[in-house]
């Protein structure tokens, strides 16, 4: 059974549909890249997968024993976070909030988990540093470590490289690729189609036309070629 | 000077005022950090004006215990305001401004039309600036205030980690299954209760100062959420005590003196923050 199975999903705001009759599935260990133009509903789709928003119709079914609160999520940064006084440790630990339930404080095991994930992301030395003083790439690592505290199975990443310079972007992709190799399923929204497709196993293209399938099929389809060419053209201008 | 102080402290109403002042400073600064970070700095202002309007209604209706009317109205407004913050046709700041100005005008209008008091402007002034009610506290007021403060602190401590998570990133928190709406509701209720309590101390115009200043000052110096929260509570209590003592000795109005001390503390913290960073 698929880890996530989406069937006939229609999404939108206030009776205006953005995405209609979308179907796809994600298997354990997949690396799915969601691409599409601005305003095509990529973020809306992700919010719906996370249960933050109700679909207008259709269904999302979790399989393989995946619980709704076992999804790690890397949202786009908000304005509030930019000048938020919080240490790296505090933020990473907050990834354990779902494990607590009604228990008000984090226990030893959760603190250790936070520590392990900081080490995994190479930010352990910053544990006591203030989040707002870190560079963009370091901040993304912090949020990734937090997401890893919430899950062992699947990560949903919303534009993880937005605003990062090329070198840090490449590092970020390597990091995510590494997590995928460790067996974590990845669903990522990206603008940067050429780089994203390089690591993905599957592509979901939404917009005026929809494509879902393996990366190779996407690259060979006329539709995918066209889109990639456009992207290349834009990035060369 | 010291003798005058001792002399004043012999009066129970002065002691009551000090106790209540410390408790209110503690509670308001505890919530302040979160409100400032959530961009709700002005909610104190808005809600206190609502409470002012409610108080006018209570006065006109000749209620003996005004709290019975003021508290529910303020709590309902707080819930509505924090809710509009999320999915709003009218955005957060505009909603707060509308409710606050509307309630203030309505309250003053009610008082003007129906009031039987001979000293109307005096009444209004003391509700807005909290001039004298601080010194008319009864033992019962003190006990009520103490009970509410203990509840506020207990709830804050028990929900500390969740409050942090929800303030830092609402999207992530609800994605991993934290009941964000429930915590926002809880916070709205607590804020309303604290503000109604704090009106007695500084009056409805200056409550925002008690909420905002300690948090902002603390953020100049400290860098983790926990240290910012702890220091803003300490600073707020120190400023409140200092302000009250100064107002006793120099016979200045209590509310504005406390706010003035807070302003001074802010500039001090700003300086320290700059010096530390260098």
CATH architecture heading of the largest domain in chain A:
3-Layer(aba) Sandwich
The count of β-strands of chain B is 0
Strands of the largest sheet of chain A, in order across it? 5-6-7-3-8-9
Largest interface: A-B, 36 and 29 residues
**Overall tally of domains of chain A:** 2
What do we call the CATH topology of chain B?
Answer: ABC transporter involved in vitamin B12 uptake, BtuC
As a whole number of angstroms, the C-alpha radius of gyration of chain B is 19 Å
Write out the CATH superfamily name of the largest domain in chain A: P-loop containing nucleotide triphosphate hydrolases
CATH architecture of chain B: Orthogonal Bundle
Q: Would you write up a description of this structure?
A:
The complex is a heterodimer of chains A (237) and B (278). By secondary structure, chain A is an alpha/beta fold. In chain A, 40% of the residues lie in helices and 23% in strands. In chain A, the strands form 2 sheets. In chain A, strands 5-6-7-3-8-9 form a 6-stranded mixed β-sheet, with helices on both faces. In chain A, strands 2-1-4 form a 3-stranded antiparallel β-sheet, covered by helices on one side. In chain A, strand 6, helix 7 (166-181) and strand 7 (185-189) form a beta-alpha-beta unit. With 278 residues, chain B is mostly helical. Chain B has one domain (2-277): ABC transporter involved in vitamin B12 uptake, BtuC (Orthogonal Bundle), CATH 1.10.3470. Chain B is built from 13 helices and no strands. In chain B, helix 2 (12-37) runs antiparallel to helix 12 and helix 3 (43-60) crosses helix 10 (180-202). Chain B is globular and about 55 Å long. The termini of chain B are far apart. The A-B interface holds A 47, 50-52, 68-69, 71, 73, 75, 78, 80-81, 84-87, 89-91, 93-95, 97-98, 100, 104-106, 128-130, 133, 146-147, 150, 156 and B 37-39, 157-162, 164-165, 167-169, 171-178, 219, 222-226, 228.
């Amino acid at each position: 059974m698929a880890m996530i199975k989406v069937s006939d999903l229609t999404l939108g705001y206030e009776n205006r549909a953005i995405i209609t009759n979308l179907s796809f599935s994600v298997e354990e260990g997949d690396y799915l890249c969601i691409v599409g133009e601005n305003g095509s509903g990529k973020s809306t789709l992700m919010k719906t997968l996370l249960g933050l928003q109700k679909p207008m119709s259709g269904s999302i079914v979790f399989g393989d024993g995946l619980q709704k609160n076992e999804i790690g999520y890397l949202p786009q940064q908000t304005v509030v976070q930019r000048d938020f006084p919080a240490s790296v440790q505090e933020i990473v630990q907050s990834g354990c909030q779902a494990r607590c339930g009604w228990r008000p404080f984090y226990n030893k095991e959760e603190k250790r988990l936070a520590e392990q994930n900081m080490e995994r992301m190479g930010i352990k030395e910053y544990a006591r540093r203030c989040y707002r003083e870190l560079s963009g790439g370091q901040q993304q690592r912090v949020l990734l470590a937090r997401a890893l505290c919430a899950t062992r199975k699947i990560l949903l990443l919303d534009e993880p490289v937005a605003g990062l310079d090329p070198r840090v972007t490449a590092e970020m992709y390597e990091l995510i690729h590494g997590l995928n190799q460790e067996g974590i399923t990845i669903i990522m929204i990206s603008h940067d189609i050429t780089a994203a497709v390089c690591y993905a196993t599957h592509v979901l293209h939404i917009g005026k036309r929809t494509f879902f399938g393996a990366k190779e099929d996407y690259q060979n389809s006329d539709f995918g070629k066209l889109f990639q060419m456009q992207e290349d053209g834009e990035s060369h201008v | 000077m010291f003798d005058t102080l001792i002399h004043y402290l012999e009066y129970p109403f002065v002691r009551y005022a000090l106790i209540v002042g410390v408790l209110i400073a503690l509670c308001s600064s505890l919530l302040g950090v979160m409100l400032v970070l959530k961009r709700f700095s002005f909610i104190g202002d808005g809600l206190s004006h609502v409470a002012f309007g409610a108080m006018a209604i209570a006065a006109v209706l000749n209620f003996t215990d005004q709290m019975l009317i003021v508290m529910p109205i303020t709590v309902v407004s707080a819930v509505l305001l924090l809710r509009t913050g999320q999915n709003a046709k009218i955005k957060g700041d505009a909603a707060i401004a509308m409710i606050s100005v509307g309630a203030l005008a309505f309250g003053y209008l009610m008082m003007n039309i129906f009031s039987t008091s001979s000293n109307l402007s005096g009444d209004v002034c003391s509700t807005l600036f909290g001039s004298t009610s601080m010194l008319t506290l009864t033992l019962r007021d003190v006990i009520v205030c103490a009970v509410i403060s203990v509840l506020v602190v207990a709830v804050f401590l028990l929900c500390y980690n969740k409050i942090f998570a929800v303030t830092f990133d609402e999207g992530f928190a609800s994605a991993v299954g934290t009941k964000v709406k429930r915590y926002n509701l809880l916070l709205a209720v607590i804020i309303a209760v604290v503000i109604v309590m704090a009106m007695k101390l500084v009056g409805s115009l200056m409550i925002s100062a008690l909420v905002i200043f300690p948090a902002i000052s603390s953020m100049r110096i400290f860098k983790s959420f926990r240290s910012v929260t702890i220091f803003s509570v300490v600073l707020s209590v120190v400023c409140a005590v200092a302000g009250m003592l100064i107002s006793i000795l120099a016979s200045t109005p209590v509310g504005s003196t406390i706010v003035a001390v807070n302003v001074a503390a802010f500039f001090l913290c700003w300086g320290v923050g700059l010096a530390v960073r260098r």
